[in-house]
Each structure stands twice: as C-alpha cells, then as structure tokens.
Amino acid sequence: MPNPSMLGLIRNEVLKIHRKRRLMVVSIILIVLVSMFTYANYRQIEKQREEQGTIDWRVDLQQEIIDTQNRLASANVQDEFRQILEFQVQQNQYYLDNDINPNYPGAPTFMRVFFSQGTTLVLPLFIIVLMADIVSGEHNDGTIKTLLSRPVRRYKILLAKWLTTLLYTSILIFVTAVVSYAISGIVLGWDGWNAPILTGFQASPTGTFSTDFVHTLPMWEYLLMSMGLSWLVVAAVGTISLMISVLVKNTATGIGIMMAVLISGPLLTSLGSNWDSSKYLVNVNFGLHTYLEGQAPPIDGMTLPFSLLVILIWSMVALAYAFYHFTQKDVY
Amino acid sequence: MEPTLKLHQLTKVIGKKTIIDNISLDVYPGEVFGFLGPNGAGKTTTIRMIVGLIKPTKGNVSICGYRVDKQFVQAMNQIGAIVENPELYKFLSGRENLEAFARMLPGVDDKRIQEVIDLVDLTARIDDKVKTYSLGMRQRLGIAQALLNNPRVLILDEPTNGLDPMGIRDLRLFIRRLVEETGLSVLVSSHILAEIELLADRVAIMSRGKIVKVGTVHALIEELASTVDLHVTNSFEVLPIVQGYEGIDQADVVDERTIRISMNVEETAKLNRYLMERDVEVFGLERRVQTLEDLFITLTGGDHIA
User: Fold this and answer.
1) Buried-most residue among A41, A252, A292, B17 (CB within 10 A)?
2) Which residues constitute the domain of residue B236?
3) Is A321 helix (H, G, I), strand (E, B) or coil?
4) Is-annotated flag, keyword ATP-binding (chain B) (predicted)?
C-alpha cells in the first residue's frame, strides 16, 4: 500500500501505545480485579452452602424475595429505593415462576455480571488509561511539532487517532471477556453459554413494571448484546477523552477531567430524580445495562433509544470539536 | 534561479502584539542561509510558520513554489525540519522512529531509511531506545528524520544547542557536505554568531520580529573590517606621522607599540608606502577583521546575545 496511508498512520498510533505498555498495565489490573471478584463470589457460594445446606437456586431465590419483602415492610426505606426493591421482587418472582435461574453458576454468568457492573466505571477507566495521552502526550513530548509538519493533513492524523481509540475499545472489550471467562471459570466452572436468561422487562421510575415483552435468550446471545452496549459506552468515553486530550495539553489534567465526568455520572443519578433534565447529560446515560436487565432507569423518560441517542450526540459533538480545534489551532 | 523557500510579507499578530513583522526572504538551492538573532527575536515563530504549525496573520510561505497554506501536502513533501529540539519518540528505538515517520511520507522504503542512518552515522545505536541517546545523537537522528523524504529545503532550528565543540564542528562539516552532494537549501537559525559565520553563505539578522539586515557573510564582514592595527617601535613618535596621512578617519594609540587606525581597509597598501617613504619602521600592518558580533550588537540593540 502506498504511503502515506490511513492504515500506516493507525499502525504508528498502535506502535506508540504498544511501546508504552499500557495494555499490559490494564490487563494486569483486570486480572487482579477479576481474581478478587471471583474469590468473593466463591466465598459467597461456600457460605450459602454452609447456611442452607444446599445450593438449590430456587431456595436461594425464594429466600432473596422474602428478604426483600421484609425490607419493604420496614418503614425507613426511601420511596425511590422502595420502587427498585419492588421491581426486584417482581422480577425474581417471574424467574421463579418460569423456572429459570437468573444466576446460573458458571463463568458466563460471571461475565454477564462483570460487564453489567464494569461498564459505568471500570471499563471507561481502562480506556482513559489507554488513550488519555494520545494527543496531549505528543504535546508533552514536543513530538506534535514533528508529527504536524509532515506531508499529511491534520484531519487525517486525528482520524487515525480516533480509529485507534475505537480499535482499542474493541481490544479492551475482548480482553475483558477473555480474562473474566478464563479466571472465573477456574472456580465457577466453564459452562453456561446456553443457559436461558430473560430480557425485555420494562420498568419505569414512575412505578410501572411490565413483563409483556419478556423473552428468553441463550446466555451467549445475551452476552453479545451486553458486550455491544459496553463497547458503545467505552467508545463514547474514548471519544470524549480524545477531545479532552486535544483541548488540554497536560495529560494529568486531562485524566482528572475525565475521572470527574465518570464519577459524577453515578453521583448525579443517585441525586438526579429531582433534576429531570440531567438525563440529557452523557454520563447519566452510561448505565445502558439497566435496560437489558429490566431495572428502572434513574430518571423518568429515559429509554434505551433515548440513552443511545444522547450518547451518540455527545460523542459526535465532542469529535467535531476535537477535529475543529486540532486542525485550526496554532501549535507552539 | 527559482528560490526553494520564499517568505512573502510574513506577519504574525498575537492579541495586539506583532510577533513577526512583515518578513520577506528568498533562499536559493545549494545555499546555507543563516537566521540570526537573540532569543525571542522571532526565529522559531518564523520557522513554525514555514512548516505550517502556525498560521500567518498576513503574508505567506512558498516551498518550491507550493504555498504552505494552500498546498500543504506538496509543500511539506519538499521540506525536512527540526523545530526547536529534535522531537522524537523517546520510548521507541531510533529505527522505529524513522520507520514511523517514513509511513507518513510517499516513497520512503527501508533502503532509504538505512541510507539516512548511514548518512548521520548512527548505525551502531539505531536499535536502542532514543531515551538512551546523548543530545548529539538525538540531534543526528532528528536530521535523519528530516532527510528521509529527500527534501529540497532543510530547516535546522538552533542545531548546535547542547553540542560540544567537536559536535558543532562535525555538524558544520556534515551540513557543508550535504549541500555540496544534494544541492538542497539549508536554513539554520542560531543566536550564536560564530557558528553562523563559519557555516552560512548568507545571513539574515533578526531583532524584535523584524529582519534588520540581509547579506552575504563576506559582504557583512567587509563592511565591518574597517580598522587596521599598525605595529611600530614607538607609537607616540609615529602617531603624528600617521595622522598626517589624508586617507584615515582616525588614529589612536593602543599601547607603546600599537596604533589603531580607522580607515578604508582597501587603502592599507598605500598607507604602508606612505610610512616607508617617511622612514617609519613598520613591524606589522594588520587588518582587524571584526566578527559579526559587533554588527549584531549594533543592530539588535545589544540585548541577549551569546
């Protein structure tokens, strides 16, 4: 292929990230985290076996429903939290009625929970570790001057960096899947790919809970959907992080800003029910897995298409501004 | 002959401050052009505009006829540059750096990469990480990078920064050889006069964003070489005789054996004959060739010079 080509530019970006050993750092953190969660999971199963003398999931689930109902009966539960608990009871009851184990033991279930829990904070954090200095690092090292005085238009250089971000988003999701399956499988067993799982519960913060659209999926299909949603969130965080990297020449400051964006998301959702328009903020919409699992979204009016649209618009605006700034501004 | 590098009324205004004020310059093939000025005069800003890192407020830059603002890719294909420092990826090896930048250039293959490595004499260390390189080696790797695309114009911004005298000499010889072999134009900026004086064919002296003087090094030195030191047995006795000669502007005693005369240096021989005719014993008659430094100090107001 004749140079300069987009593929060559992407190869350069991958080379730089590869040589900084970022993916290795992320993988090690991931291995440590998954190992800890697996062990915690194992301890929980052990404890159950001791207490109940059995690991029949039906007994377990029935117990959980009773526990939740007991909590609902006590007076000091907040209204919003009460709603979530009620949905939980209804959902668990539905699983029980249809004789489907929502927590089928095995590595695939571990993966399901890990992707669901990791998408709002852990995975975005990893993409920030990988990509935060993709532009600002060139400023810190001064290499931006060499990079931008070569016969390649600036928009192509930034496009290569963005495509590299998407590539690493895919690699990150893949590595997370492999690591969480491989490590949890040692303790929890490897099977469960075809275990049925229910999706399509519809819950809204105003109190309606519907099972009209519920259908069964094999675990592998559910996992693919779940990983797809994770990919979207991580790609969006990567894109916004790219913009911050273009705007903020100092990498540490850039990471700080992105951390604030990530952390304020869950904070806002826990306070946000009274601030309706916070649903238009991108970081409030990162919990895409709540739709898949049928939990109530934090704010009324939020649906899967709504959240996807909000994420898409924010990402495109961030990308457009990054391109504008990168191609138009003087470089000192 | 068409200039390879042409600056046309180049101006940069930041806020209300005029950083670069209406600079026009032509650099020709096979020429080493010195860009001289104290720190903060605007040399690096000008270079940044040449390589398209900064947009001029007014005016434009052409490289081999291609406008940097309108035909960026074609223009950059004809140029290689080191801006400020040789900025390369420290966590990559020298070869990986060259390979990465080669992927941004048309028609640069592994053979060409090896050629430039040999040219700058980095073969022994090329596969080591750049962070282990000395400043001189980084400088050479930077030059190798700039030469990858066989440029018609090479820009070296303060290339001798951090080099020892030996390194400076090597660099000078290297640039001379390069110009002779390839006929490219080299723009070298510096705030150190001695380097430019030995290296450049022509110089532009820059101060506070303006070019205050352009000319060949030879012409500038001619202009400055206007004093003659006369060595005699007794200065005080000879002084009145010298002052009797019409062709001099001024004559002063420096010490017992030396008189310094301001005059047109082309008349030195005539002065010698005049003194001989009057039986003055002349031990030496020395044209005092001043460095550019004196001119530089006068032109730039004497601030911030090395």
Assistant:
1) A292
2) 226-288
3) helix
4) yes
